From TrEMBL:
<dbReference type="GO" id="GO:0000221">
    <property type="term" value="C:vacuolar proton-transporting V-type ATPase, V1 domain"/>
</dbReference>
<dbReference type="Pfam" id="PF01991">
    <property type="entry name" value="vATP-synt_E"/>
</dbReference>
<dbReference type="InterPro" id="IPR038495">
    <property type="entry name" value="ATPase_E_C"/>
</dbReference>
<keyword id="KW-0406">Ion transport</keyword>
<dbReference type="GO" id="GO:0046961">
    <property type="term" value="F:proton-transporting ATPase activity, rotational mechanism"/>
</dbReference>
<dbReference type="GO" id="GO:0045121">
    <property type="term" value="C:membrane raft"/>
</dbReference>
<keyword id="KW-0813">Transport</keyword>
<protein>
    <submittedName>
        <fullName>V-type proton ATPase subunit E</fullName>
    </submittedName>
</protein>
<dbReference type="GO" id="GO:0000329">
    <property type="term" value="C:fungal-type vacuole membrane"/>
</dbReference>
<comment type="similarity">
    <text>Belongs to the V-ATPase E subunit family.</text>
</comment>
<dbReference type="InterPro" id="IPR002842">
    <property type="entry name" value="ATPase_V1_Esu"/>
</dbReference>
Amino acid sequence: MTSIVHALSDDQVNQELKKMIAFIKQEAMEKAREVHIKADEEFAIEKAKLVRHEQTSIDANYEKKTKAVSMQQQITKSNIINRTRLQVLAARQETLDGIFEDARQRLPDAIQTSGLKPEELYTNLILQALASYAEVVTVKARTKDHDVVNKAISSAAKKYQSQTHLPVKLSLDEKNTLPAECAGGVTISGLNGKIEIVNILDERLRLLESEALPFIRVTLFGKSETRKFFH
């Protein structure tokens, strides 16, 4: 059997070509749409990654800056507290220094108004120092006090011998005197100057200052939470 092949007309050929072109165009559009969708998905993924990375970086940066600001605030606060504390301590010390300086300035007048006779005062100062010495003792005083100290030496020697039944020889050193600007008092030396006791009123006031300082602080400023006194 022989088959008969009919040739396609021009119209039929054109129709077939149009179908093929439409099919290819449809396939291309589908492919383009798939590529576009995939590109959009990849873009969204990359964008999300980038956003997360940037957000993490921003958060870390913000946390770092927040910590730095907090640290700086703590340092500033600590500096202010320390500076204020030092200012308070300086003001307190200035007050205490003023109190004792005022006491030093008033010391000569206080002695005169105390009702204690100068000779009695110097006698007591000499007697307090005599307990540490041998038989021969030298006394030093201010030049202006020599007259009253000579009388006090005689009185102190008699009282010392009466109380201890020991001999003692007291003499006033008129060449080596105490500074005129001191508030008064005496120094006692024995054993050829090897031992000396300073019993001047300025020194007595300094000792009193050292002993009384803790109690004066508490009286003026109240008890301190950080300072402990054992006096």
